[in-house]
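SAMPLE LOG
Freezer: B-3
Tube label: C17
Construct: single chain, 185 aa
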Amino acid sequence: MLVYFAGLFFVIVRHLWSLGRMLYLIRHSRCERLDNGIRLVVHRRKLAPFSWMRYIVISETDLKESGHHILVHEMAHIHHRHSWDLLLTEACAWLQWFNPAIWLLKQELQNIHEYEADEEVLRQGINAKEYQMLLIKSRWRKALLYCQQLNHSSLKKRITMMIRKNPIRGHVPSTSMYFRWQPLP
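STRUCTURE (predicted):
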């Protein structure tokens, strides 16, 4: 029991520390209001862009260089409410910290979130090759723990998903089609 509660304490403290760092970053940056109550937080320091709840955090240089693409990607995370999914998996990870399956589930969920955001970027009419080059060229640092970010994780899989065409619909297959429940005939 002592080992379980020690692990639980460690995981909770790590999560709260990360949230505290994120809130500190948001409060000490320039903040602008966008559509639908979304707040754009622009920071002077070079950091990986990420979104959390109704906030999009981005560095000044990334905003100038490729701001539109990044904002479309991060807004997709916000509109799909990916932060809530991460909070739920984090709460499960608190209780099941010793179970490797919860950490794999959390990683796969983050990958699915990235696929969905990439699909939304392409649906908005952004050139796929240009967007893929942005992903490849980017040297963004790893963002704060538990934040949605545009990063290099599973970059090859993400680009493959963008390249694959659905012959019926003529565009990138929806990630939700893999998880849609359908009754048996």
